[in-house]
Design brief:
This protein has one domain. 79% of the residues lie in helices and 1% in strands. It has ten helices and two strands. A hairpin with a 5-residue loop joins strand 1 and strand 2 (119-120). It is globular and about 65 Å long. The N and C termini lie far apart (56 Å).
Length: 268
């Protein structure tokens, strides 16, 4: 089935907006990760607590994953929109199916039924979204609980409505099959319009998650800055006393160099 013109028009606008904004966000995200790596070394060397720094780094890495999925998903969509022949369109559609399946598993994971017909949640419960992020929101940023629950509901509903056929299509797309006609039949029977109707809400969820985790990262970084500055001010008082003693007793210590070393522990 060919993509409807109305759907195609919507996709041109959506993908352009998402790719442009996500690229900028990921570039800034990577810069923050590099800075945080250097700050971590500095804090450890001065025996300053890095709990909130590690949380912020984990959030930023998670944002990188979400951003990469957004870029891959929307780039595959653009590949479809710019394709010339039918197989190019089908190939791009297969890529979208793979990204949706693999991406969903990485950001939230699946549930499954055991032999007794019971729903097993252990993989999803261990996911970063359902574990670390939930705890940060509930313990540190309760004003974001409603938004967290809204996105979680969207993740659950997307899984319930879209994953019946995706697994087999993904498996054949990645691993192929000794019976090549099975792969061929899967490819030629792909519902392209249906695939893109899955892509649009998933892309929307990812974009909301990207913005949401940015707020969390900003909050954690601000906590870190406040904690570090508090430690800095406390240490500064003791440092001034030490400088006075050095001057009083004419000790052979370079106070200027000592001051420069001390000032490295303050984060701007």
């Amino acid at each position: 089935m060919k993509l409807k013109e109305e759907t195609k028009k919507d996709l041109f606008e959506i993908t352009q907006f998402i790719i442009e904004n996500t690229t900028k966000s990921l570039d800034n995200n990577r810069i923050l990760l590099i800075k945080n790596s250097k700050v971590k070394e500095l804090l450890i060397s001065h025996e300053i607590d890095i709990t909130h720094l590690e949380k912020s780094v984990n959030i930023l890495e998670y944002r990188m994953l979400i951003g990469l999925l957004l870029l891959d998903l929307n780039s595959s969509t653009r590949a479809y929109l710019n394709s010339v022949n039918d197989y190019e369109k089908l190939y791009a559609s297969r890529q979208i199916i793979v990204i949706i399946k693999e991406g969903y598993q990485k950001i939230y994971d699946f549930v499954f039924k055991n032999n007794e017909g019971q729903t097993v949640m252990k993989n999803r419960n261990k996911s970063f979204w359902n574990n670390e992020i939930r705890m940060i929101i509930e313990n540190d940023i309760p004003e974001l609980v409603a938004k967290y629950e809204e996105i979680t509901i969207a993740l659950n509903e997307f899984y319930d409505n879209n994953f019946d056929s995706i697994k087999e299509q993904r498996d054949l797309s990645i691993h192929y099959d000794k019976k090549a006609s099975k792969v061929y039949d899967m490819i030629t029977n792909i519902d392209i319009d249906g695939t893109f109707k899955k892509m649009i809400p998933f892309s929307d969820i990812l974009f909301k998650m990207l913005n949401f985790t940015e707020k969390i990262a900003e909050f954690l970084i601000e906590i870190l800055r406040k904690e570090n500055n508090k430690t800095y001010e406390s240490t500064k008082m003791n440092f001034e006393k030490i400088k006075k003693k050095i001057s009083k007793h004419n000790l052979d210590i370079d106070i200027e160099q000592l001051t420069k070393l001390f000032n490295t522990i303050k984060l701007s």
